[in-house]
Amino acid sequence: MSESTNEPQLSFEQLNLRPELLQALQARGITSPSPIQAESIPHVLKGKDLIAQSQTGSGKTLAYLLPILQRLDPADKGLQAVVIAPTRELGMQILSEAEHYGDPLGIRSQALIGGAALSRQVEKLRLHPHLIVGTPGRVLELIKARKVKMHEVRTIVADEADQLISLGMIEDVKQILKSALRDRQLLFFSATITPEVQRIADRWMNEPVGVAMRPEQRTAGTIEHLYVRCDERDKLETLRRAFHALKPKAALVFVNEIEPIAELVAKLEFGAIPTAALYGDAPKQERTKVLSRFREGKVRLLVATDIAARGLDIKGITHVFHLDPASDADHYVHRVGRTGRMGEHGVSVAIITEREAFILRKFEEQLGIRIEPRSLAAGKLLELGHAKSGGRRAEPPAQPGTAASARGPVKEAALDTSAPAGKAKRTVKTSAAATPAASLRKPAKPGASPAATGGDTAPPRSSERPRERERARERDKKNKGAPKWLKAKQQQPQQAQPKQEQPNQEQPKGSDKT
Question: Which residues constitute the domain of residue 45?
Fold first, then answer.
């Protein structure tokens, strides 16, 4: 695979785009191409196979969409181009761009997204779209049903190719490639070019051209990387304080598991932060509603897992918070790529414990970035005076009336030397000022009841076991604030069949499949 050279950047006019496309770009306020667009568009216009790597948010969609639309023939009723996307949201975003730039050229575009009504999509195929944008499973389903004919397709695009592989969709992509002609144009666009992406490109492409925009810098240079240390139990409060300190217009919060999301959203809402959750397995209508409220500013904080937020391209996201550290450097790249898009400034804040600090140091080495330490004080996010690898900051001594001073009486231990040798007793002397009132009560008279002495009566035994009560409380906490469809989904397996222990089989955690 050959590598392209970084020549002086050209304008859209110098890239020989049609006047209709130039006018559509001007209507969006786009005056000059990004580096990935300037490098990729000439190769795509020439019909070459291409594998392109650039940071998330650098304009990869227009890098392939503009030249593809220019090459399509509006007079031909056959399907001429297919764009494959890993998620429904990314697919709909690509379709929106295709319609904006393709309508002036007379190009018809259609979405084939999984989760939508199949019958409606089949009905719209009768309008003979020139370009379709879809998820691999739905596109392959309609190919096998002979509703999508690939024999005239000239170009196939795999957008976010690394995600197509990591989400287990690559086998469907291979079947789609097999259904097309051998001389079709194949384009791979991705934020990270993994060995698996490279291997598939070598297998299916014909003399591909490689375009890499500063491959050593996998995150946008406009993103500020920060972290705050705290105890595990203080993470939620730290997130709340950081949000109020930074005052983001719109922000994402990433967690690694789906189970605590409902409780997290409920607590943030209680803290006067408009919050919503993005579940990967939520119905399409539910996800659309949540994203619509987020784009309109009715929700300022969106809590999601890595899978649920795959491919999100929402303008105006200024901050990304990591309540749990990313599982690896690639996931960190995709997380922070939700902000700082197209040259805009973005901020990434990781909330970590002392034990999790090594994860960020590993990301620094692998990604060539600097993640700066910060502390929260007086409602602001402040720089620390010591190195980021330093130890935990010393806590100030507790003042009278504070939580630390209210923990209990101060005790002085001493040895009772009046005891026989070898059997010295340890007695505890407690200051009278710190002695609880209960300990100053007079001794009970013989035969007096506990109530007469001011003592506590033993609570009656409950017929319900403590462990079961604790599980019920935890289940209620997690369900608090969850949408109705998720509550029903969590309760359905428990009602359908009793829980069985399988010692040799690990139970899967909460699924979050998109």
Answer: 2-212
